[in-house]
Amino acid sequence: SSSEKNVLSLIEEKSAIDSEKSTIEAEKADYESQNKALCHQKDSLEASMAEMQSQIFTLVDEKASVEADFQSLTRDKNKLESLNSDLYDQLATFKENFSLSEANFKTLAAEKSTIESNNEALCHQVASLESSKNNLQCQVQALSEEKASAEANASALTE
């Protein structure tokens, strides 16, 4: 009976060990399943990280390109602003020159009017002098004829 007790005790122990072994194997299977899921998750995260790293490199390259474009556009903007400033200066100079030209035109127009008035007065003087000259020529002609007549009369008297 003691040996039966020992056998029963051993059977119970074996049964307990088998039960514990079953529990451990179930836990092992559960841990292996969790490990497999974690490995899959790790692989997925590593793939995501690799993709993100690739995107980061692409963005860094794009950033350099955008910065170069920005610098180029800034230079173009500065050139255009300088050109615009030069054009405003030229416009101011043109306006000033136009104003001076306008003033000169008015002065020349006034001088032209004065010259035309003086020319008209001179034309009247020339016409008056021509008339006086013609009158004097007529008088000279008449005097010459009188002289010739007087000389003829004097010559006739002396004969």
TrEMBL record:
Species for this entry: Ditylum brightwellii
UniProt name for this protein: Uncharacterized protein
The keyword Coiled coil is assigned to this record: yes
Domain of life: Eukaryota
Gene3D superfamilies per the UniProt record, alphabetical: 1.10.287.1490
Keywords: Coiled coil
Coiled-coil segments: 28-153
